[in-house]
């Protein structure tokens, strides 16, 4: 069976994730095999991880430290009657935001999760682009408290925030977002590495110099190696970013 090494690069704002993994093929058509179905628990963990990873990339590709992380909550006398009422309230809030942004000559961009705690308390986590002052956002909400803080980017980007936003039970799908968001840039290429080179890289996953040589202009964050006992393959996921003091034109690859 032939094996080639594939490199997948995801660029999201000032962050880059590089995945290096084997692709197996013998060049012959294969009969359809019965699909392997993981356990519900394993599939749920995989779904959660993929959702958090994509959400982090989406935030990093569309928002900056000038944008806001807001958390609207409800007064006791303004609580939603049920899940459908909660979704209606959120839709109306988004409509008010769009009108206010348009009046200011701007276009609203947002990502949000609608959550319900184990105690049955409804709340919203939401990221919005800059344009309105926190007091204006509170007036538009009008149903309780609304905290507003600037996004804080670090060497791990906003992965922690993405994890937090998807931590609790969602009323809708995992997250909601405006249609005007940019998708992270993803590209793939084969033949960049040999199997021997990948194994050598995996032996020193914390070697900053080796990783930064491979991605000029980026600062290494971390590398997560995985060794597959079934196919003998080595899988690497490497995270990079450009700190503010290093921001410059990136080398195209």
Output the helix-strand order: EEHEHEEHEHEEHHEE
Characterize the overall form: elongated
Sheet with the most strands: spatial strand order: 8-1-2-10-9
Beta percentage is: 25-35%
Calculate Rg over CA atoms. Answer: 22 Å
Q: Averaging pLDDT over every residue, what do you get? A: 85
* CATH architecture grouping of one domain: 2-Layer Sandwich
Report on the biggest sheet.
Answer: 5 strands, antiparallel
Number of DSSP helical runs: 6
CATH class of one domain: Alpha Beta
- Total beta strand runs: 10
Kindly, what is the distance between the CA atoms of the first and last residues, rounded to a whole number of angstroms? 29 Å
Jot down its keywords.
single chain, alpha+beta, 5-stranded antiparallel beta sheet, 28% strand, 253 residues, Alpha-Beta Plaits
Write up what this structure looks like.
There is one protein chain. The chain has 253 residues and is an alpha+beta fold. The chain has a domain at 66-150: Alpha-Beta Plaits (2-Layer Sandwich), CATH 3.30.70.1910. Helices cover 30% and strands 28% of the residues. It is built from six helices and ten strands. It has helices at 40-62, 83-103, 134-141, 159-165, 195-203, 208-214, and strands spanning 2-12, 15-25, 68-72, 110-116, 122-128, 146-150, 176-177, 185-190, 219-227, 234-241. The protein has a five-stranded antiparallel β-sheet. A five-stranded antiparallel β-sheet has the order 6-3-5-4-7, with helices on one face. A hairpin with a 2-residue loop joins strand 1 and strand 2. The protein is elongated. 26% of the residues are buried. The model is unreliable at 29-33 (pLDDT under 50).
């Amino acid at each position: 069976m032939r094996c080639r090494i594939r490199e997948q690069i995801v660029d999201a704002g000032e962050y880059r994730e590089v995945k290096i993994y084997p692709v197996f093929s013998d060049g012959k058509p294969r009969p359809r095999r019965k699909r392997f179905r993981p356990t519900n628990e394993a599939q749920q963990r995989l779904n959660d991880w993929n959702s958090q990873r994509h959400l982090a990339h989406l935030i990093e590709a569309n928002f900056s430290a000038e944008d806001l992380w807001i958390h609207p909550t409800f007064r006791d006398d303004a609580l939603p009657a049920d899940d459908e009422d909660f979704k209606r309230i959120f839709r109306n809030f988004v409509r008010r935001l769009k009108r206010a942004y348009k009046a200011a000559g701007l276009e609203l961009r947002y990502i949000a999760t609608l959550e319900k705690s184990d105690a049955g308390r409804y709340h919203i986590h939401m990221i919005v682009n800059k344009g309105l002052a926190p007091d204006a956002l509170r007036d538009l909400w009008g149903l309780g408290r609304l905290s507003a803080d600037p996004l804080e980017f670090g060497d791990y980007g906003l992965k922690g925030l993405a994890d937090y936003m998807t931590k609790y039970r969602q009323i809708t799908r995992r997250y909601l977002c405006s249609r005007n968001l940019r998708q992270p840039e993803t590209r793939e290429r084969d033949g960049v590495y040999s199997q021997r080179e990948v194994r050598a890289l995996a032996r020193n996953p914390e070697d900053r110099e080796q990783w930064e040589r491979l991605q000029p202009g980026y600062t290494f964050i971390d590398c997560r190696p995985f060794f597959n006992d079934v196919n003998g393959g080595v899988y690497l996921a490497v995270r990079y970013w450009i700190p503010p003091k290093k921001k410059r034109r990136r080398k195209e690859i």
